[in-house]
Amino acid sequence: xxxxxxxxxxxxxxxxxxxxxxxxxxxxxxxxxxxxxxxxxxxxxxxxxxxxxxxxxxxxxxxxxxxxxxxxxxxxxxxxxxxxxxxxxxxxxxxxxxxxxxxxxxxxxxxxxxxxxxxxxxxxxxxxxxxxxxxxxxxxxxxxxxxxxxxxxxxxxxxxxxxxxxxxxxxxxxxxxxxxxxxxxxxxxxxxxxxxxxxxxxxxxxxxxxxxxxxxxxxxxxxxxxxxxxxxxxxxxxxxxxxxxxxxxxxxxx
Amino acid sequence: xxxxxxxxxxxxxxxxxxxxxxxxxxxxxxxxxxxxxxxxxxxxxxxxxxxxxxxxxxxxxxxxxxxxxxxxxxxxxxxxxxxxxxxxxxxxxxxxxxxxxxxxxxxxxxxxxxxxxxxxxxxxxxxxxxxxxxxxxxxxxxxxxxxxxxxxxxxxxxxxxxxxxxxxxxxxxxxxxxxxxxxxxxxxxxxxxxxxxxxxxxxxxxxxxxxxxxxxxxxxxxxxxxxxxxxxxxxxxxxxxxxxxxxxxxxxxxxxxxxxxxxxxxxxxxxxxxxxxxxxxxxxxxxxxxxxxxxxxxxxxxxxxxxxxxxxxxxxxxxxxxxxxxxxxxxxxxxxxxxxxxxxxxxxxxxxxxxxxxxxxxxxxxxxxxxxxxxxxxx
Lengths: 254, 379
Ligand SMILES: Cc1cc2nc3c(=O)[nH]c(=O)nc-3n(C[C@H](O)[C@H](O)[C@H](O)COP(=O)(O)OP(=O)(O)OC[C@H]3O[C@@H](n4cnc5c(N)ncnc54)[C@H](O)[C@@H]3O)c2cc1C
Ligand SMILES: Cc1cc2nc3c(=O)[nH]c(=O)nc-3n(C[C@H](O)[C@H](O)[C@H](O)COP(=O)(O)OP(=O)(O)OC[C@H]3O[C@@H](n4cnc5c(N)ncnc54)[C@H](O)[C@@H]3O)c2cc1C
Hints:
Largest sheet of chain B: 4 strands, mixed
Shape of chain A: globular
Number of domains of chain B: 3
Radius of gyration of chain B: 21 Å
CATH architecture of the largest domain in chain A: 3-Layer(aba) Sandwich
Largest interface: A-B, 14 and 20 residues
CATH class of the largest domain in chain B: Mainly Alpha
Number of helices of chain A: 6
Oligomer: heterodimer
Bound molecules: flavin-adenine dinucleotide
CATH superfamily of the largest domain in chain B: Butyryl-CoA Dehydrogenase, subunit A, domain 3
Number of strands of chain A: 13
CATH topology of the largest domain in chain B: Butyryl-CoA Dehydrogenase, subunit A, domain 3
Number of domains of chain A: 2
Shape of chain B: globular
Distance between the termini of chain A: 49 Å
């Protein structure tokens, strides 16, 4: 079973502070990490490999140096890594095309795995886009994956219901963070990962000509929450009524 | 000159940090309160490679360098001093002596179970009447046929009661003082080898500190560890290495105190503002941070020297001395920053303060470190 896991390097969003005067997030000095849910995808890939054998390749498209973070995934148990350098302004369209080109170059694969969404932008587009570009079936939001010999059975978590789906290989699967608990590598694995190959590919080496982003980021602003500070001090019955009224007006109650 | 950690060292630090945040920090107060020895935790640590850190892979160890060991020990001690000392004594002393001085057979026989975390090792030099003056030990070993017969009492032995394997220093030539001491491997359950009292301690209450009684305890001839009559010199080599590690432990505990203080001072409001806005509080925290950095650099440098086979006795003693005394100051200031709350068990500061005191005593008191340094300075 050969598995390609798409794992994105993101800034650690829990470390972002918002400048109160400009409302802009302060990104300087914020550490980088592998998007949490993508780590679940890597863990799942390693578990499938442990059961069926094969090879796990992690694939990262990044405009900044991703080697150090990718090594963590190799230490966890992935066999090889591919890092594709991307232009600074790459959008979903550009990144998904680069991922698709890289996966085609990697070639022989049964499963493409990824997180349901990345923790920084959380659009959830990458999986479906990629499945489309590769022309393979997709199972998104998988919270359980059973890779059998010639088909995969997965439980999709779509909010109120769980849908069980089956697909032949090759297939693209995106996972939710409930699917597993990513392992910590042992010290031995960390040392051994130093010798695992990290291939660095450029757009040119993938034969991808110029890609123009379709999306432009106009502004990034921190969310500020302001309290309304309304206090109802009348007798309880009346206060409850007013509260319900206000909540309805705010659209909180339907 | 390069102060940057290698990618592997950074990765080791990060992994151990994550492990400690998840597995040790949440139970640290309980381990201390209930004097608990969490076997499961040590087995998990074994899987991660933390129970045989610098031992090469062929004996089941992780094979990391000494500097990485210090990084890991700092993280562990930051989460729990009790776990820190247990891991330190096991790695530096218990396993250290068998690996450094053992024969190929001894290494193969004992190390794999110890490095995997299945079993714990202890190391017994100190006796009721021989602490700083360790060469004055009275435990004896006499060869009778194919067996060494050991007699004497060891005390203050970390993990002594639960260890599967204990390295015991004993006199093999009464006339010769320091040059008449040898090391022996004694296995748990050997007839004549008994556990005496367990110490009721100020801190590190989740670590075990035991008295060991040897009464006509017979071990096979091949359990002599290292050369006969070279045991004291061997023990001093092992302690040299352990000292840097005690320094790392002190830095870890101080770092925990620092982080708690920064966070608390930003939350706590007095006189209408966070106490972190008072210069008096800032200076306490700044001094903690600065001294921690200095101590850490001493520890890293001593480990660097070890890694490069450059003599490090003086530097290790300096690292231990400065780091442990620094950590006493830092944990005291951290309680001060927390005011009355720092004095209670609601916060971990009092535990840090109690735990770190051992660093000024174990593996040679601060006075003994000064003595070692003075000799190296030619005084
Ligand atoms: C929690 C804990 C764990 C330990 N674990 C181990 C272990 O695993 N294995 C082991 O073998 N030992 C262990 N020890 C023992 C430890 O190494 C000794 O306690 C230490 O070496 C000091 O010896 P002592 O307690 O007998 O004090 P003493 O030697 O009696 O010292 C008392 C005081 O006198 C001072 N002093 C002594 N001689 C001099 C001198 N020449 N010049 C100036 N001052 C001097 C000392 O610095 C100290 O302040 C442990 C101790 C503790 C508390
Ligand atoms: C065991 C114990 C018994 C006690 N018994 C009593 C009792 O019987 N009755 C009673 O009323 N109280 C009692 N107290 C409370 C004690 O008086 C307070 O703990 C003490 O006044 C400090 O207040 P705090 O703990 O709120 O610390 P905080 O006032 O929050 O101080 C925290 C830190 O900020 C510093 N700080 C605060 N303001 C400034 C400033 N303006 N400039 C510079 N630094 C500043 C402090 O010096 C301290 O280092 C007791 C406390 C303890 C621990």
